[in-house]
User: What shape does this take?
Amino acid sequence: MSAALPILYGNCESGHSYKVRQTLVLLGLAHEYRYVDLLPPRAERRADFVAVSPYGEVPVFIDDDGVMAQSNAILLYLARRTGLLGGGADLDRTTQWLFWEANRIGFSLANLRFALRFDDEDPGVVAMLRRRTEADLDRLAREFDRRPFLLGETLGVADISCAGYLFFADQAEVDLGRWPSVGAWLDRLCCTSGWAHPYELMDPKLAT
Ligand SMILES: N[C@@H](CCC(=O)N[C@@H](CS)C(=O)NCC(=O)O)C(=O)O
Assistant: This one.
C-alpha cells in the first residue's frame, strides 16, 4: 500500500463532485481534495488534473487502484470496496438507482440549474428540462411515501447520488415544497452525522 492519500479532483459548483466527497466523508475515508477551476478552457486547467482526467470533467478519483471518473462509477466502486452504503447485499439495487440518477436527476435538474445559472437560457430547453425534473421528483416521491431511504431503512450511495443536485434546487427555480416526502428524505440526510451542504463540503478553502 502506498502511503499517499487518495485524491479527489472537484469543484464547489459540481454536484457530481459533491456526491463523491460526501460519500468519502460518510465512509470516513481520508483523502486529498484538489480544487479544479472550471472557468478556463479544458486544456488550461491545472496541469495535474488535465494529465489524468479521462473526460476533462470533475470528479476524478485516484487511489492505489488507479484513476476513475464518472461520479456514479466512483460511488459504486467505493460501496463495493467497503461493502457499506448499499455495497453489500443491495449492490444490484444500488446499481439500478445510480443508473437512474445518471439519466434522470443528474441530467434533468443538473442541466436545468446549469441553464438558468451559467448558460444562455433557451426557453424550449428549459421547459423540457423542467418537465423532466418534475417527473423525476414525482418518481422519487413515490419511493419516500413508502420507505425512508431508497434501499429501505438505511442510507446508501443511491441516496447520496439522487440527492446531490437537489441541494441546488433553488438555483433551478424548483420548489421542493411540492414534494413533501422528498423534502422529508432530504431532512433525514441532513441529520446524518457527517452530512454537509455542497458549498460547505466543497469549499475551495478545504482544498489543495
Ligand atoms: N457524468 C459525469 C458528469 C461530470 C460533469 O458534468 N462534470 C462537470 C461539472 S458538474 C464538469 O466537469 N464540467 C466542466 C467541463 O465539462 O468542462 C459524472 O457523473 O461525473
Observations:
- Residues 112 and 125 are 8 Å apart (CA to CA).
